[in-house]
């Protein structure tokens, strides 16, 4: 082991804390053997639905050394997005908390790049790539291996201190660092997430059938929403937080301190009647910097119309 490994590992963690990351840990860049079987079975069962990109780069998803040549370590980090205030759902459609504000891909990636720049000033140049929910990286697997948390029954990464309302990010680099140890699973016999899911998308512990998931239906699905979702959407127009909201560990979620994650003013003020009148122009204005732009105007309009049609038949 490199004599600087301990020093660099501590420096990276102290820097991560200073840059506002909630948790951080290190894994050795290696082949994810256990995850290879799980991913293969998930794809074979077609639980990824229309997310055909999940079939691509199978080997790279499982071995970061194929993604970043010469990589030796994976630094996993989490960034809190739990809001200071929840958007009212009174006469309003629901939106996942992560999409309340600016697009996390941009915000967290900017922070990561600044952090890497500072590290290079102190360590010297090293080769790395930063990732925030992008590229073929199995984020939860690396975060689990680095000891940040455990994968809950709802397939989200959970920590005892902070629950699960956070983004995951990675720095895959050629620095030799001290790996951390995995933590233990603390879900126990709790089934709240499984029992609360209105579409039964959690088909078994830690296994999600994307075809049944409200988040998938409102974001990833490009075709019409299937009739099987009727009367089960619970007014979610973008994403879904049900399995996280009921998780007992999320009672420890504390509001984030990132000003760029303050809820979008339009989302705070809109009601169902305004959403029904949404235009392309207004969509572009409201969601210009938002993760909601991923579903595009046509997708969000489809979701709203599906919810409207469903509620009319109640």
UniProtKB/TrEMBL annotation:
<feature type="binding site">
    <location>
        <begin position="240"/>
        <end position="241"/>
    </location>
    <ligand>
        <name>cob(II)alamin</name>
    </ligand>
</feature>
<feature type="domain" description="4Fe-4S ferredoxin-type">
    <location>
        <begin position="177"/>
        <end position="207"/>
    </location>
</feature>
<keyword id="KW-0560">Oxidoreductase</keyword>
<feature type="binding site">
    <location>
        <position position="193"/>
    </location>
    <ligand>
        <name>[4Fe-4S] cluster 1</name>
    </ligand>
</feature>
<feature type="binding site">
    <location>
        <position position="61"/>
    </location>
    <ligand>
        <name>cob(II)alamin</name>
    </ligand>
</feature>
<keyword id="KW-0408">Iron</keyword>
<feature type="binding site">
    <location>
        <position position="222"/>
    </location>
    <ligand>
        <name>tRNA</name>
    </ligand>
</feature>
<dbReference type="GO" id="GO:0051539">
    <property type="term" value="F:4 iron, 4 sulfur cluster binding"/>
</dbReference>
<keyword id="KW-0004">4Fe-4S</keyword>
<comment type="similarity">
    <text>Belongs to the QueG family.</text>
</comment>
<dbReference type="InterPro" id="IPR013542">
    <property type="entry name" value="QueG_DUF1730"/>
</dbReference>
<dbReference type="GO" id="GO:0008616">
    <property type="term" value="P:tRNA queuosine(34) biosynthetic process"/>
</dbReference>
<feature type="binding site">
    <location>
        <position position="197"/>
    </location>
    <ligand>
        <name>[4Fe-4S] cluster 2</name>
    </ligand>
</feature>
<comment type="subunit">
    <text>Monomer.</text>
</comment>
<dbReference type="GO" id="GO:0052693">
    <property type="term" value="F:epoxyqueuosine reductase activity"/>
</dbReference>
<feature type="binding site">
    <location>
        <position position="213"/>
    </location>
    <ligand>
        <name>[4Fe-4S] cluster 2</name>
    </ligand>
</feature>
<feature type="binding site">
    <location>
        <position position="247"/>
    </location>
    <ligand>
        <name>[4Fe-4S] cluster 1</name>
    </ligand>
</feature>
<feature type="binding site">
    <location>
        <position position="154"/>
    </location>
    <ligand>
        <name>cob(II)alamin</name>
    </ligand>
</feature>
<feature type="binding site">
    <location>
        <position position="168"/>
    </location>
    <ligand>
        <name>cob(II)alamin</name>
    </ligand>
</feature>
<dbReference type="GO" id="GO:0046872">
    <property type="term" value="F:metal ion binding"/>
</dbReference>
<dbReference type="Pfam" id="PF13484">
    <property type="entry name" value="Fer4_16"/>
</dbReference>
<keyword id="KW-0819">tRNA processing</keyword>
<comment type="function">
    <text>Catalyzes the conversion of epoxyqueuosine (oQ) to queuosine (Q), which is a hypermodified base found in the wobble positions of tRNA(Asp), tRNA(Asn), tRNA(His) and tRNA(Tyr).</text>
</comment>
<keyword id="KW-0963">Cytoplasm</keyword>
<keyword id="KW-0170">Cobalt</keyword>
<feature type="binding site">
    <location>
        <position position="133"/>
    </location>
    <ligand>
        <name>cob(II)alamin</name>
    </ligand>
</feature>
<keyword id="KW-0479">Metal-binding</keyword>
<keyword id="KW-0671">Queuosine biosynthesis</keyword>
<protein>
    <recommendedName>
        <fullName>Epoxyqueuosine reductase</fullName>
        <ecNumber>1.17.99.6</ecNumber>
    </recommendedName>
</protein>
<feature type="binding site">
    <location>
        <position position="187"/>
    </location>
    <ligand>
        <name>[4Fe-4S] cluster 1</name>
    </ligand>
</feature>
<dbReference type="GO" id="GO:0005737">
    <property type="term" value="C:cytoplasm"/>
</dbReference>
<feature type="binding site">
    <location>
        <position position="240"/>
    </location>
    <ligand>
        <name>[4Fe-4S] cluster 2</name>
    </ligand>
</feature>
<feature type="binding site">
    <location>
        <position position="190"/>
    </location>
    <ligand>
        <name>[4Fe-4S] cluster 1</name>
    </ligand>
</feature>
<dbReference type="InterPro" id="IPR004453">
    <property type="entry name" value="QueG"/>
</dbReference>
<dbReference type="GO" id="GO:0031419">
    <property type="term" value="F:cobalamin binding"/>
</dbReference>
<dbReference type="Pfam" id="PF08331">
    <property type="entry name" value="QueG_DUF1730"/>
</dbReference>
<keyword id="KW-0411">Iron-sulfur</keyword>
<feature type="binding site">
    <location>
        <position position="215"/>
    </location>
    <ligand>
        <name>cob(II)alamin</name>
    </ligand>
</feature>
<feature type="binding site">
    <location>
        <position position="157"/>
    </location>
    <ligand>
        <name>cob(II)alamin</name>
    </ligand>
</feature>
<feature type="binding site">
    <location>
        <position position="243"/>
    </location>
    <ligand>
        <name>[4Fe-4S] cluster 2</name>
    </ligand>
</feature>
<dbReference type="InterPro" id="IPR017900">
    <property type="entry name" value="4Fe4S_Fe_S_CS"/>
</dbReference>
<feature type="active site" description="Proton donor">
    <location>
        <position position="133"/>
    </location>
</feature>
């Amino acid at each position: 082991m490199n004599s600087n490994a301990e020093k660099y590992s501590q420096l990276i963690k102290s820097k991560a804390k200073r840059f506002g990351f909630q948790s951080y840990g290190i894994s050795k860049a290696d082949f994810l053997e256990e995850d290879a079987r799980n991913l293969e079975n998930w794809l074979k069962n077609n639980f990824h639905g229309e997310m055909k990109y999940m079939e691509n780069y199978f080997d790279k998803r499982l071995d970061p050394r194929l993604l970043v040549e010469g990589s030796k370590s994976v630094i996993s980090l989490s960034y809190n997005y739990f809001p200071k205030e929840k958007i009212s759902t009174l006469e309003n459609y629901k939106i996942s908390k992560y999409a309340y504000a600016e697009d996390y891909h941009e915000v967290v990636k900017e922070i990561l790049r600044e952090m890497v720049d500072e590290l290079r000033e102190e360590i010297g140049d090293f080769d790395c790539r930063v990732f925030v929910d992008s590229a073929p990286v199995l984020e939860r697997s690396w975060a689990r291996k680095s000891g940040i948390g455990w994968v809950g029954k709802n397939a989200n990464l959970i920590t005892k201190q902070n629950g699960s309302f956070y983004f995951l990010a990675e720095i895959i680099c050629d620095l030799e660092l001290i790996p951390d140890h995995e933590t233990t699973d603390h879900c126990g016999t709790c089934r709240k997430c499984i029992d609360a899911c209105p579409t039964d998308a959690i088909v078994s512990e830690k296994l999600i059938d994307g075809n049944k998931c409200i988040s998938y239906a409102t974001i990833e699905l490009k075709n019409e929403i299937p009739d099987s979702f009727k009367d089960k959407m619970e007014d979610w127009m973008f994403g879904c937080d049900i399995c996280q909201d009921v998780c007992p560990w999320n009672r420890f979620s504390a509001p984030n301190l990132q000003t760029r994650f303050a809820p979008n003013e339009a989302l705070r003020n809109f009601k169902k009647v305004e959403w029904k009148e949404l235009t392309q122009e207004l969509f572009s204005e409201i969601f210009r910097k938002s993760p909601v732009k991923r579903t595009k105007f046509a997708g969000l309009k489809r979701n709203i119309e599906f919810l409207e049609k469903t509620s009319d038949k109640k």
